[in-house]
């Protein structure tokens, strides 16, 4: 209690008000209605000289995130009462200003702190440092920190977090090294900063130095490992966690998705559903839907959509956009459109998801129609939008339309990226405009990558232009020496021209370059179990039964009059081992 404080004799209203505010474990105290009742009693009290009661009222507003109410109450108390603020008052007010980013009010509170002589108070000074950090005013935060006579771990950590968030890693390290004692929060802040700049070596050193690792420590390292593609290390950390929360599961699931491992992501998601009490939240849904989209598991996607409805997450723009993307990539454009139309708030990414969905499913006209509607609704296209538009033109063979939108990108202040050029090269190549495609490649402000050259090579092969194919093959083989598709296409082109010697040479070149034809495989899901079949694999546990079924199928089809031209065994080999 401050020097002005005393133990007052409270009236019945004051006692009732204080009772309501101190009911920490009751439901009413955690609801705005409970605070409103206490506030009505508080406002009917004639004198507000009880600092403890006033602080309790201010803090209750802050705890319920009613930040403007706490500031307004403080102003009213200062104007019309004999209220004397103390260190607890300013600690709560600084927290309110920081969390609500009330910069002007925060500076006023700092001014009042100086006038009332609480600048030397450790808790008030630390709260002000934290407030300025949240404002992003690191100069003021550092000045406040330097003027402190005494500093705690919280004071150091608050400023370290500020430097780390704004990307000033050097200042964060300097401050971290000055700390007399380091707590888990400081370690976690430095680990997070290191992870964000891709410095996993420093993050690992910090992690190994920690004595009291917690869920945040492990989750930060998991995110960092996934960011650099090291999902094996991430999973090892995940498996050895003493305890996990929903954020930990989300981090690992998201890491698998970002590193193109949808099977592992789905497997982990099912494990979370069956072995824990955690319910998927918005982050979980947004993390798992890309894996479902990559896998094409529409049944699982429908089940996730039911979870979204059950938990009332459909109002989230990110969830809605992810659902549109999932349905579109699974080929269900009808459901994708329905989800899109039901979204209350759309963003550019939402339009992009459906435009690209229409494009990859061959609905070019629908994609371009939606693109026009997007502009009419006031949404500005971005690079991803234009990639979807060009892809729609590509899939629909709309050459002139594609050229027009490619040229008009500058009208949207967009600079064509290499992906846009690649789409145009593919469009022109598919249309047989090989010379025009070649000129576009030569005029690009970028070096042609293997994807563009391979696309052009296949266009040349399709048009039987062996001379152009040979020229581009010399370039693409330097960029992608292990791409088996290029060798196979070129060998087949030579074979079609009966140039058997060149075809054999291409086969030898493929072998000496170390390129191997990728083994074909197919994946199906039966009773929530994912089964993969690999070409040429006789080790499948049910191989004999599969072989018998294929033999029966061959006999049945032959009885129906199908003429294969080869034996039952050749048929089974062509299907199962191709």
Question: What count of helical segments does DSSP give?
Answer: 32
Unreliable spans: 1-5, 574-578
Can you count the beta strands? 2
Strands of the largest sheet, in order across it? 1-2
Keywords:
578 residues, mainly alpha, two-stranded antiparallel ribbon, disordered N terminus, disordered C terminus
Structure description:
With 578 residues, the protein is an all-alpha fold. 69% of the residues lie in helices and 2% in strands. It is built from 32 helices and two strands. The chain has helices at residues 12-21, 32-43, 51-63, 67-80, 87-100, 103-116, 122-135, 138-146, 153-165, 169-178, 184-196, 200-209, 215-227, 231-239, 246-258, 262-275, 282-295, 298-310, 317-329, 333-342, 348-360, 364-376, 383-396, 399-407, 418-430, 434-443, 450-462, 466-479, 484-496, 500-512, 543-559, 568-576; strands at 521-526, 529-534. A two-stranded antiparallel sheet has the order 1-2. A hairpin with a 2-residue loop joins strand 1 and strand 2 (529-534). Helix 12 (200-209) runs antiparallel to helix 13 and helix 23 (383-396) runs parallel beside helix 25. The protein is elongated and about 105 Å long. Residues 1-5 and 574-578 have low confidence and may be disordered.
């Amino acid at each position: 209690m401050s020097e002005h404080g005393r133990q007052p004799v409270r009236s019945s209203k004051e006692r009732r008000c204080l009772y309501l505010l101190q009911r920490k474990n009751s439901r009413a105290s955690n609801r705005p209605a409970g605070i409103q009742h206490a506030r009505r009693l508080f406002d009917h009290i004639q004198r507000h000289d009880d600092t403890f009661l006033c602080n309790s009222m201010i803090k209750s507003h802050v705890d319920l995130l009613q930040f403007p109410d706490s500031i307004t109450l403080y102003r009213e108390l200062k104007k019309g009462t004999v209220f004397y603020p103390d260190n607890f008052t300013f600690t709560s007010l600084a927290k309110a200003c920081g969390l609500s980013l009330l910069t002007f009010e925060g500076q006023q509170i700092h001014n009042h702190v100086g006038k009332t002589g609480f600048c030397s108070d450790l808790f008030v000074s630390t709260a002000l440092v934290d407030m300025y950090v949240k404002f992003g005013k690191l100069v003021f935060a550092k000045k406040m920190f330097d003027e402190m006579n005494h500093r705690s771990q919280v004071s150091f950590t608050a400023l370290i977090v500020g430097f780390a968030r704004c990307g000033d890693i050097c200042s964060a390290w300097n401050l971290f090294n000055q700390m007399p004692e380091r707590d888990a929060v400081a370690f976690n802040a430095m680990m997070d900063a290191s992870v964000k700049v891709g410095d996993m070596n420093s993050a690992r050193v910090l992690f190994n130095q920690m004595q009291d690792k917690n869920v945040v420590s492990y989750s930060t390292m998991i995110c960092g490992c996934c960011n650099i593609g090291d999902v094996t290390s991430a999973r090892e950390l995940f498996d050895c966690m003493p305890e996990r929360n929903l954020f930990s599961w989300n981090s690992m699931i998201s890491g698998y998705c970002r590193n193109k491992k949808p099977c592992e992501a789905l497997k982990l998601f099912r494990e979370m559903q069956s072995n824990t009490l955690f319910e998927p939240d918005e982050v979980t849904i947004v993390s798992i839907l890309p894996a479902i989209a990559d896998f094409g598991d529409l049944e699982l996607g429908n089940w996730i959509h039911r979870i979204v409805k059950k938990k009332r997450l459909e109002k989230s723009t990110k969830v809605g956009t992810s659902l549109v993307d999932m349905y579109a990539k699974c080929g269900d454009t009808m459901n994708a459109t329905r989800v899109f139309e039901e979204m209350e708030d759309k963003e550019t990414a939402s339009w992009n998801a459906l435009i690209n969905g229409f494009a990859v499913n061959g609905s070019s006209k629908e994609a371009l129609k939606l693109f026009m509607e997007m502009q009419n609704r006031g949404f500005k296209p971005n690079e991803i939008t234009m990639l979807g538009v060009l892809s729609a033109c590509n899939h629909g063979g709309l050459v002139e339309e594609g050229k027009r939108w490619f040229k008009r990108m500058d009208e949207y202040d967009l600079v064509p990226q290499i992906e846009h050029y690649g789409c145009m090269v593919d469009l022109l190549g598919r249309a047989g405009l090989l010379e025009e495609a070649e000129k576009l490649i030569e005029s690009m402000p970028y070096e042609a990558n293997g994807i563009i050259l391979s696309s052009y090579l296949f266009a040349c092969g399709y048009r039987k232009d062996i001379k152009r194919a040979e020229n581009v093959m010399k370039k693409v083989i330097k960029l992608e020496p292990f791409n088996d598709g290029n060798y196979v296409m070129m060998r087949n082109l030579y074979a079609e021209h009966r140039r058997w010697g060149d075809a054999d040479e291409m086969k030898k070149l493929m072998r000496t370059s170390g390129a191997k034809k990728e083994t074909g495989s197919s994946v199906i899901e039966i009773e929530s179990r994912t089964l993969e079949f690999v070409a040429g694999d006789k080790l499948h546990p049910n191989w004999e039964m599969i072989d018998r079924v294929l033999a029966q199928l061959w006999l049945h089809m032959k009885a129906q009059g199908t003429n294969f031209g080869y034996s039952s065994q050749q048929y089974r080999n062509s299907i199962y081992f191709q």
